[in-house]
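Hi C.,

You asked whether I'd gotten around to modeling the 262-residue construct. I have! Everything is below, sequence then structure, no commentary in between.
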Amino acid sequence: MITLLASALWRLGYLIDSKTRLSPKKNTCFATPLLGIGSLLAGGAGKTPYAAFLAQKIKSKGHRVAILCKNTGDENLLLAKKGFDVFTGNRFELCKKLDGKYDVLISDDGLEDRRLSHAFWICLTWGERAESLQDIIPHGNCRSLWKDHPEIGCVKKCAMEWEESAKSADIIFSMELNLPKNSEIVAIAGIARSQRFFDGLKRNYCIVKKIDCPDHFNIQKKTEQALKLGLPVVITEKNAVRLPEFILSNKNVFICKLNASH
């Protein structure tokens, strides 16, 4: 009952924000197309790796592309490390600032920002319902409902490569780790939906210790403590971007990459 009430309050705040601060702006026209990568899930949908996948495809065709995202200290750093032009902050203001300077802009997240009315939105889904208050956080896993987003131009079904649903998925995510199979490891994650990361590792490795941290968590101290066990320590690519070089260069630290493909 308490979580349902909290979901109702979240929903009320979302609707008020949508009609005030994030409402569409009149008389705005942009020359540069905006491709939005969104999801109804509150994190963990794979938006950043998919944004990187699309950006690389666009770059490979000789087009100038920039990615817009919020400054959380990991997504933006990860995208920049991959060699993309990344801009953080108010996405609407960034669109005005960058208009005409790139061939394509990609927004990593931001589906709730209705000021981005010129965007073509691709929504990544993992089969979430998103139909009622019971699906809204903290009762459920979604930030908003399907009925809130008539602007979505395309819905892409997602799956991890080993899941049965991968046979019919539009986007398949795979994990890449340069470590001998069946190794005993310590696995650390500070990401949303971290269970997918752990499930993927369990398929090929023996997890002696699992350390599950909140999304955007700085795992430096956890990693330093884990290294004392003398086992390979496997971390996510997203978490790795916030770690100092002396940890990343440790021979027992292994970075697991998440790749997207059609």
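If it helps when you're writing up: The CA atoms of residues 42 and 143 lie 5 Å apart.

Thanks,
B.
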